[in-house]
Write a structure and sequence with these properties.
Order of helices and strands: HEHEHHHEEEHEEHHHHHHHHHH
Largest sheet: 5 strands, mixed
Strand order of the largest sheet: 5-4-3-6-7
Structural class: alpha/beta
Number of helices: 16
Shape: extended
Number of strands: 7
Radius of gyration: 32 Å
Strand content: 5-15%
Length: 456
């Protein structure tokens, strides 16, 4: 059927543009950066027609392409010039002149190349990009700053001792007042240690905490005394693996990690098994547990608690009965035997997730925090001294806590090094609280830059 067009009317044409998702995403990313125009014009000599020799007239211009340009880092010198003022009236009426000098902010390290921005960037390179000091050394010298790796290490240790440690202690105090924590530990190497291994411990806030904190602690030992000393009389819920050290916490309620249970049954599955096996049945029970929990993710804590009582509790009972019934049929020393024994030996601890809707099935949050340190360990290899290892624990704590509060960690470290040296004392907890990562001033100064929106 043809569309009729009456006299005097012009036909309407509808044009539909289809923009690919890739193109829209690219445009969104490009628009997030400041722009600078580069104009490509003909020179005066070229603005002559080659045929008639008359002058060319510009008729328009348009954007041919958009590209991103990398600008290498640079170092510049700031000369802090202090101005002085004299009160003529007071000077005339007194024996001595009255001179007032404008205040000058203190540097974090006196008589040092290590300004707040340089120290913050060296910390960012080491703990976020995992670049050890000996590899940073070449980059700084390439920029014209003749510093050695030992300078970088000393700056970080001194800043940690002077400024970061008081804030770390305050964060620890706040952490131990929270209701739900996670914990994990991993080995480390310190050259000046008498033992072959030392240990990093991590203690951190639960998933739903509004003021989340992640702390690291370095210690020569992995015994229960470390957990007891650090957590003191913590009486809340503690998500952890079944390492015996945590059992010495008399006031805490331990919550076992079901990811560990599933992992042990998965490791017990024979690689050649095609059909059903006891190991696969154990994995199936665990998978069903996680599937149910995932379906309740958007429920309120009370609703999640009620659903767990109705559906998860019977599933737990069925799983542990299955373990008891099959335990006599498996070899105790086999992988399956160890998986079954692991589940039964800590049955009550694994069931503790039913006690509160805010608790979670796994301790993956702590394992991710430890993984951050493990990745760094592969690059740093070791620490020379205990002081160096503890410095890393304190700095990592500030960085990971900043990230959990949606801060740019480098901005936050620089902010602290700009502000804390100018405080009269760092023992005043009320004053120090202003530098915690969730405060309004810190959020406004150090907020992570928003990522470009994804194309629809």
């Amino acid at each position: 059927m043809k569309m009729m067009i009456f006299p005097g009317e012009e036909p309407e044409e509808t044009i539909i543009y289809k923009r690919s998702k890739h193109k829209a995403k690219r445009e969104a990313i490009l628009s997030a950066f400041p722009s600078e125009e580069v104009h490509h014009k003909l020179s005066e000599a070229e603005q002559i027609c080659s045929e008639c020799q008359h002058e060319l007239k510009e008729i328009g211009s348009w954007t041919v392409r958009k590209e991103l340009v990398f600008i290498p880092a640079q170092i510049k010198r700031l000369d802090h010039i202090q101005h002085a003022y004299k009160c003529k009236h007071c000077s005339l009426n007194n024996e001595r002149d009255k001179i007032i000098k404008a205040p000058v902010p203190k540097a974090p390290l006196a008589h040092s190349y290590g300004s707040s921005s340089i120290v913050a960037h060296s910390i960012y390179q080491k703990y976020e990009l995992k670049i050890p000091a000996y590899r940073q050394e070449n980059d700084w010298q390439k920029l014209g700053l003749p510093i050695q790796r030992q300078d970088l290490i000393n700056w970080q240790m001194k800043c940690s001792e002077y400024y970061f440690k008081p804030l770390y202690d305050l964060l620890k105090e706040r952490l131990l007042k929270q209701e739900i924590l996670h914990a994990d530990e991993t080995s480390y190497r310190v050259l000046e240690s008498e033992t072959a291994k030392t240990y990093y411990w991590t203690f951190l806030s639960g998933k739903q905490e509004k003021k989340p904190i992640t702390l690291y602690h370095h210690d020569p030992h992995r015994s229960g005394k470390v957990a007891v000393d650090f957590l003191d009389d913590f009486s809340g819920y503690l998500h952890c693996d079944m390492w015996q050290a945590y059992k010495q916490l008399s006031s805490a309620t331990l919550v076992g990690c079901w990811a560990h249970v599933r992992r042990k049954f998965m490791e017990a599955v024979p690689p050649t098994t095609k059909g059903k096996s006891l190991s696969k049945q154990g994995v199936h029970y665990c998978n069903k547990t996680f599937t149910l929990e995932s379906s309740w993710e958007n429920l309120s804590n009370e609703e999640r608690y009620q659903r767990r009582q109705r559906e998860l509790k019977p599933l737990f009972e069925e799983f542990f009965d299955w373990c008891r019934n099959n335990q006599p049929m498996v070899l105790p020393g086999s992988k399956l035997g160890k998986a079954v024994a692991y589940a039964l030996n800590h049955e009550e601890t694994f069931k503790n997730v039913l006690l509160d809707g805010k608790l979670v099935l796994s301790n993956n949050q702590a394992e991710r925090a430890i993984k951050t340190l493990v990745i760094g360990r592969k690059n740093w290899l070791f620490s020379q001294s205990f002081e160096g290892a503890q410095t890393s624990a304190i700095i990592l704590s500030l960085i990971e806590t900043a990230k959990r509060n949606n801060l740019d960690p480098e901005k936050y470290i620089e902010y602290l090094l700009d502000k804390l040296p100018n405080e009269e004392t760092l023992t005043d907890k009320e004053r120090l609280s202003a530098y915690l990562p969730w405060t309004k001033e810190v959020q406004e100064a150090c907020k992570t830059k928003e990522k470009p929106m994804k194309a629809a």
